[in-house]
Structures are given as C-alpha cells and as structure tokens.
Amino acid sequence: MNANELLTLALILFLVIPAPLFIVLHFISKWKQSREISRDDEQMLEDLWQLSQRLGDRLQTLERILDDELPDRRRRQ
Fold first, then answer.
1. pLDDT at 77 over 70
2. What is the DSSP-derived secondary structure letter of residue 71?
3. What digits encode the pLDDT tens for the residues 17-56?
4. Which residue in 1, 26, 40, 41 could disulfide with 5, CB within 3.0 to 4.6 Å?
C-alpha cells in the first residue's frame, strides 16, 4: 500500500466510525440543553405574564367605562 491508499483508508475509517458517533452525541447534548429553559426565556415569560395581567386590567376598566356610559350595549351585541 502506498501513502495515498493509506490516507484514503484512514479517511474512510474516520468517516464511517468516529464522525457519525460525534454527530449523534452532539445532537443528543443539544437536545438535552434545549429541554431546559434559559434565564432569558424565563425572564421573557415573566414579562409577558405581567403584560398580559396589565392588559387584562385595562380591558376590565374599559368594559366598566363602557357599561357606565352605554348600559344596554351588551344587549345590542
């Protein structure tokens, strides 16, 4: 066997054994990381929750104002 054949054989063996194993292990570790929520995502969810609470309060206030100004508006809908 000459040097080119040995290099080709080594490359083929690398592509057949360690490369697929590395790829599988890489994606397993990424999958495990993605199952956990990050601090940034947790903060974003908290901000969205607070925003939804404020919007709900505003909606109730607007409904009270409309009920006071147009008492029969719900019956017309």
1. no
2. T
3. 898 899 999 999 988 877 778 889 899 999 999 999 999 9
4. 1
* Amino acid in position 22: F
Instruction: Tell me if 42 sits within 8 A of 36, measured CB to CB.
Output: no
Handedness of CA 63, 65, 66, 67 (dihedral sign): positive
Residue-wise DSSP of 3-49: HHHHHHHHHHHHHHTHHHHHHHHHHHHHHHHHTSPPHHHHHHHHHHH
What's the token pair of residue 66? 């409309």
pTM of the full structure: 0.51
Centroid of chain to Cα 43: 13
